[in-house]
Amino acid sequence: MTSAPRVLRYLDNEELTTGAGTLLVSALAEMQRRQEYVNLCLSGGPTVLSALTHFAALARTGAFDASRLQLWWASERFVTTTDPVRNSVQALSILAGAVTLVPSQIHAMPSRTGKTDPDDAAYAYAKDIGDTQFDITMLELGDDGHIASIFPNHPSYAVQSTTTLQAVGVADAPMGPPERVTLTLPAINRSRQVWMLASGATKQDALAGSLRGESRYPASQAHGADWTLWFADQDAAGELPCFRCDL
């Protein structure tokens, strides 16, 4: 049985992303004391990327051994391999200048360059995942409550209640580009820890509704097998009662 979500509350986006990046270094370093490799899964989004920037700066100090990192993605735009809108391209551009990553341990989602369609890419990525359990999956909350590329009132969400797949293709996404690949909720929820980042007043309704368990928000259905952590700045947390927050 998973524990109740814990909400970490920050003054603003800068404090949130600094806090998330700092905690990520310490959490992964602690895991490395118990296991050879750690599996980190990332989504896209400006808040996640900003937290990753802080993580990279701290990881440069040697507190964390990047050669023992297995890097995965929760969502990807189905475009060509080098397209700058790809989540993996953006994340690796941040990490590459700070830490030394082992190429065979970077598990980017397949792209349009090598696959015929998002479903083909999703099938290949699911095979790559195999029985891997992510140690931490870091997701960004969308204004509409979406996570990864699982959108409310959309087939990408409707399929989640019946699928046994670890990744699926997405067509006609409500934000561009329309074709994507996403992990499924079953794959996300196998993660030991799920971290959700919410920043800005436009996230208030989705954050509060997700924490209340309102199923219209995909984020409400995501949780870690051991821990679920929400990182929220004051603007995003405006509708949360303080007893659910660490002030």
Primary descriptors:
247 residues, alpha/beta, three-stranded antiparallel sheet, 7 helices, 10 strands, 29% helix, disordered C terminus
**Biggest β-sheet description:** 7 strands, parallel
So what's the overall shape?
A: globular
Low-confidence stretches: 243-247
**Ends apart, CA distance between termini:** 27 Å
Q: What's the number of extended β-strand segments?
A: 10
Kindly report the spatial arrangement of strands forming the biggest sheet.
Answer: 3-2-5-8-9-1-10
Describe this structure in words.
The chain has 247 residues and is an alpha/beta fold. The protein contains seven helices and ten strands. It has helices at 13-32, 46-59, 87-95, 118-129, 155-158, 185-188, 204-211, and strands spanning 6-10, 38-42, 69-73, 75-77, 136-140, 167-170, 180-183, 193-198, 227-233, 245-246. It has a seven-stranded parallel beta sheet, with helices on one face. A three-stranded antiparallel beta sheet has the order 4-7-6. It is globular, with a radius of gyration of 17 Å.
Topology:
Blueprint: E1 6-10, H1 13-32, E2 38-42, H2 46-59, E3 69-73, E4 75-77, H3 87-95, H4 118-129, E5 136-140, H5 155-158, E6 167-170, E7 180-183, H6 185-188, E8 193-198, H7 204-211, E9 227-233, E10 245-246
Parallel strand pairs: 1-9, 1-10, 2-3, 2-5, 5-8, 8-9
Antiparallel strand pairs: 4-7, 6-7
Helix pairs in contact: 1-2, 2-3
